Amino acid sequence: MNTPRTVVDSVMAADPRWVPSTMNLRECALIMRNENLGVMPVLDGDGHVLGLVTDRDIVVRGVAEREDLSAFRVADVMSVPVMTVRTGSELEHAVLIMRAERIRRLPVVDDANRLLGLLTLSDIQSEEHRPNAAAAGDEWLPS
To answer: Alpha helix (H) ranges present in the chain?
Structure first.
């Protein structure tokens, strides 16, 4: 008997909060603080994923190196290149990417690389869709 495969779309957070690459860094930091976000996808004007910006990016590449955050843009500190996964992909495929790349967040995009959702390690854990979980324990998790 074939079991249906879980696709990323059923686990991801759809329509996540995002920022344009041109936004100033201080404004981005305020959004992240006010909305309790650790990461936001960075998009261009057409909704294509350019990168991710994390609270750590802002601290390490922003605060630690610059005095005036408002003078710098998200594009100056965002993490690139960004790995993505296509809508309709099997969750196991996304987990393999996350494991190989040692990442905890994966934007889900359409065929034109436009953002549809964000898949996080905690999304996967909460759904308990760990491949070979019984045999491998949590060894598949990126560290």
So the answer is: 25-34, 55-57, 91-101, 121-127, 133-136
- The CA-atom distances, in angstroms, between 81 and each of 36, 49, 51 are 24, 10, 6
Q: In terms of DSSP bridges, do strands 49-54 and 85-86 run parallel, antiparallel, or are they unpaired?
A: unpaired
Q: What is the pLDDT of residue 137?
A: 41
Distance CA 77, CA 65 (A): 10
pLDDT digits (tens, 9 = 90+) for 63-117: 767 767 778 899 999 999 999 999 999 999 999 999 999 999 999 999 999 999 9
Given a contact cutoff of 8 angstroms between Cβ atoms, the answer to whether 67 and 108 are in contact is no
What's the pLDDT score for residue 12?
A: 95
Higher-confidence residue of 127 and 120: namely 120
Query: Greatest CA separation found in the chain?
Result: 61
Alpha carbon 124 to chain centroid, angstroms: 13
